[in-house]
Amino acid sequence: MDRPVRELSYAQALQEAMAQAMEADERVFLMGEDIGVYGGAFQVTGDLVERFGEARVIDTPIAELGAAGVAVGAALCGQRPVFEFQFSDFATLAMEQIVNQAAKMRYMLGGAVSVPLVMRFPAGSGTGAAAQHSQSLEAWFAHVPGLKVVQPSTPHDAKGLLLSAIDDPDPVMIFEHKLLYKMKGPVPEEAYRVPIGKADIRRKGRDLTIVATAIMVHRALDAAAILAEEGIDVEVIDLRCLRPLDRDTLVESVSRTTRLLCVYEGVRTLGIGAEISAMIAESEAFDRLDAPIGRLGGAECPLPYNPEMEKAAVPQIPDIVAMARRLVRGTV
Amino acid sequence: MAVEIIFPRVDMDMASGRFSRWLVEEGGAVGKGDPLFEIETDKAAMEIDAPASGILRGIRVAEGEEVKVGEAVGWIVAEGEAWQERVAPAPIAEAPIAAAEMPAAAPAPVAPVAPSAPAAAPAAAMLRATPLARREARRLNIDLGQVSGSGPRGRIVSEDLRAVASVPAPPRIEPSMEPSVEPSIEAPPKRPAGARLHRQWSGAGDGVPLVFLHGFGADGTGWRPVWRGLDSTHRLLAIDLPGHGRSKPQAPICFDGLVDAVQSVLDEEGVRRCVLVGHSLGGAVALGLADAGVVDIRALCLLAPAGLGPEIDGAFLSGLVRATRAESLAPWLLRLVADPALVTPGFVRATLQASDAESADYRRRLIDSVFPDGTQAISLRHVLPQLAMPARIVWGTRDAIIPASHAAHLPGRIGLHRLDVGHMPHLEAPRLVAGLIAEAARSAVP
């Protein structure tokens, strides 16, 4: 047990989760565009088609609505499909199947059926892929009861949450930030699970709670290291899951630190930060707030192609440092 | 203004790269677009141009160093612009970002507000204070109108109350007991308020832990008769309130001080959800915790709780804290119970020995704050209708300390058990009370 855990990239960790799930359960199969011989747009499925064959690693036509319908139908019939969108942006084409069918079936049929479906969404900006391939739409899906929405930020959590998602009897949407695919980190070899609905305190601190998702967790940790040199002690919570939200961990943390900053890449208005801010303001932590709640989110515009503008449109480390300073030093 | 020189992303997947060499020396002049430094990625080496014209300052990376994309490697300042090495990191966050952040994050940026000095004592209607500052002010009985706020537009933050809290003590605050104790205002994130409180765990089990809060003048050992009657499905935790049992006194000496101290112990012990059992003053503290809402209380069981009406036997309280000998203590202890046989000489001696002078002094001050003039100055009746968890109250019909009539007119969903005992149901009817507590534990939402 004491030997060091080997490192895998985020993409390799996802691939290992799928391979282990497919080995353990023959109902598990993969669907998506170019996930077979090509190995997926971000090489997440890699050579799985060679290991499991074309019947279980299925290349679909470029027709998201139809393919998603097949996945929902297969799940209803007891299969365990794992569906990859080439880019999360293309989920717009499949919304009927996700929102009106997958999310509703269990409820509309009085619990007689469930839809054990997993959908994987490469998301986020920073790759120069422009407005139609760079969005962070996870909050849309988190607004739909009947879906679960997870957003792992490390290779470890990517594997553990994907395995939990595959086990789950209901549809789980997993948002994978494209900038994380090559990030490496320790990943145990066994098929472990990370529970859905639990946030993770990635750094303990006393002065400010930063709640962040996906790539923003890493930016917040980098910002916390800079702020530590100035004597500002930041707690960083990796939300990991948008639905269900881990209310207890957030309320407890803010009650201790008395200040809250939400950092997320999706459009700032009506986003994740709006929900977390409101939840804290409604909770017993309200009386413990000693500064206004801060939010840093994406700009109110389609993501620009120009790399400088693209960078300026989502929170960066210096933005987090500056906002944290203002909240803690009481200048906002 | 200084312009940050950023290590660029030249490839879509690139997270970092090797910094090969500077093409300009520290202090050298560059023109915008001139080659400034060279980098190497796993694919190629390339020259990077200067983002602005000026003088190269504050070089932060050495040749051959691995640098993360987006990291600042140095600065370009205007000719003649003062450059202080030591402030190098500051502009990262303040100068360039303020410019970059505004159009991106906020389409309609709020005009920056000049941090104006707080105007002459703000009228109450104009008062700006954070929720925490307001809560602390209520707790410490401080008039926020008298506090000048250090925040923008004169907003009062909790820190601002410290200055006020250390000047002449407001009515309900007692001076701290020990010189080492911080001024009576709580410092939220750093406070070790629970650190000195004695606590005793017992039993094992996976159930939600049961937490026991004793009454005035008692301590956690008083729960032993009841604990013997509880099976082992839950862990049991008894906390000695400040200045009681083995807990030292601690400031502030007021009711909220007790609530906060217990809350801190629960926090330290990792108890985020529990079944709460409180007797008398401990019952009021339990209601205070329910009111604060930080601890997730899954069920509540109150024995003759304080806080539900003004009456309390003031003579008993002062007799209890004045007594220094068995002869003067025993008559008051007899008032606690219906059956005088329970007040054995051993019980009297144990009660006497449990008290040192410092704690006795603390308890005198506590009475003065919580039960002045033989009156319950705290009221928690407003909490009862808000209780969302299963709750029950146990009261002895022969209670001579707090009248059982305080349990009249309870909200319908709170259970009431009237026992033929005095003020100490857990001592006088331990098996029955243990059964009621076990029922409360079973009613807890897991």
Would you write up a description of this structure?
Chain A is of the alpha/beta class and 332 residues long. Chain A has two domains: 180 residues, Thiamin diphosphate (ThDP)-binding fold, Pyr/PP domains (Rossmann fold), CATH 3.40.50.970; 130 residues, Rossmann fold (3-Layer(aba) Sandwich). Chain A is built from twelve helices and 14 strands. In chain A, α10 links the parallel β13 and β14. In chain A, α1 runs parallel beside α7 and α3 runs parallel beside α4. The longest helix of chain A is centred in the first third of the chain and has 15 residues. Chain B is elongated and about 95 Å long. In chain B, the strands form three sheets. Chain B has a seven-stranded mixed β-sheet, with helices on both faces.
Write the layout of secondary structure elements.
The complex is a heterodimer of chains A (332) and B (446).
Chain A: E1 7-9, H1 10-24, E2 28-32, H2 48-52, E3 57-59, H3 64-76, E4 80-84, H4 95-102, H5 105-108, E5 118-123, H6 138-142, E6 148-150, H7 155-167, E7 172-177, E8 184-186, E9 200-203, E10 208-212, H8 215-229, E11 234-238, E12 241-243, H9 247-257, E13 260-267, H10 272-282, E14 294-298, H11 307-312, H12 317-329
Parallel strand pairs in A: 2-3, 2-4, 4-5, 5-7, 6-7, 10-11, 10-13, 13-14
Antiparallel strand pairs in A: 1-8, 6-12, 9-11
Chain B: E1 3-6, E2 16-22, E3 29-30, E4 35-40, E5 45-49, E6 54-57, E7 66-68, E8 72-77, H1 89-93, H2 95-105, H3 131-140, H4 158-166, E9 199-202, E10 210-213, H5 224-228, E11 236-239, H6 255-268, E12 273-279, H7 281-292, E13 296-303, H8 314-322, H9 326-334, H10 345-353, H11 357-370, E14 391-396, E15 415-419, H12 425-428, H13 430-443
Parallel strand pairs in B: 10-11, 10-12, 12-13, 13-14, 14-15
Antiparallel strand pairs in B: 1-8, 2-4, 2-7, 3-6, 4-5, 6-8, 9-11
Biggest pleated-sheet summary of chain B: 7 strands, mixed
Mean model confidence by pLDDT of chain A = 96
Q: Report the total helices of chain B.
A: 13
Q: How many domains comprise the coordinates of chain A?
A: 2
Q: Tell me which oligomeric state these chains represent.
A: heterodimer
- Would you report the number of β strands of chain A? 14
